[in-house]
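step=encode ok
step=design start
structure_in=
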């Protein structure tokens, strides 16, 4: 397995530091009027996206310069062969939510090997919530306020993350606020749902990982950098 040669602990440490700094860069723009541009696919991008992207790309270069990086903001959609190992980055997942000054946006970083995610980091700076892989098949969560000076993962109060078993009396479902469609509603109608709530970005993956919800169906369009880290 290729990931046997990947230093999960070092990656978790370096990228937690980078995520904290990227989060600080994002939050520096949060209470200002965002200057919004539209990309070729008509999705929005802001200075916050680009500032966070620069911090993450620099950290990945220090971590593993031999591994290619695909970032939503640096590259956009690509059909170029990447080999069987690359990083996948969305420096600000939930740009629409960020522009609306909501708290449900995240920093997403993933390592893909042989078509599968092997390492993931999801960070919600406005909620100070982090989830990160620290070993093969093992992830932890922690409170992490954004900090321009970075953060030390080993000094955080960490807790092991594990999805919960579904409650037979009814599941808690999460849905996308931006992409809720008839197919999603049809899927949920077949389940026993006790509660449901909507949110943007990968904060839904954080809720699943922390055992706060059971199911997040998504049938509408999505990109790999939106989901790989979760």
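sequence_out=
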């Amino acid at each position: 397995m290729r990931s046997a040669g990947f230093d999960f602990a070092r990656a978790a440490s370096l990228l937690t530091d980078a995520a904290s700094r990227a989060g600080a860069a994002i939050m520096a723009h949060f209470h200002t009027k965002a200057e919004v541009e539209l990309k070729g696919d008509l999705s929005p991008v802001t200075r916050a996206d680009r500032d966070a992207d620069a911090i993450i790309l620099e950290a990945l270069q220090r971590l593993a310069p031999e591994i290619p990086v695909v970032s939503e903001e640096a590259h956009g959609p690509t059909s170029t062969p990447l080999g069987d190992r690359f990083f996948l980055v969305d420096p600000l997942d939930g740009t629409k939510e960020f522009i609306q000054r909501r708290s449900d946006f995240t920093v997403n970083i993933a390592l893909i090997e042989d078509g599968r995610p092997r390492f993931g980091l999801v960070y919600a700076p406005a909620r100070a919530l982090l989830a990160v892989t620290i070993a093969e098949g093992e992830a932890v969560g922690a409170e992490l306020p954004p900090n321009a000076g970075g953060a030390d993962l080993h000094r955080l109060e960490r807790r092991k993350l594990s999805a919960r078993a579904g409650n037979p009396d009814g599941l808690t479902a999460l849905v996308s606020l931006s992409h809720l469609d008839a197919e999603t509603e049809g899927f949920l109608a077949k389940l026993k749902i006790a509660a449901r709530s909507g949110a943007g970005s990968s904060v839904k993956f954080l809720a699943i990982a922390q055992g706060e919800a059971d199911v997040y169906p998504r049938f509408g369009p999505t990109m790999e950098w939106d989901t790989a880290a979760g």
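step=design ok
step=annotate ok -> The first helix runs from residue 8 to 27.
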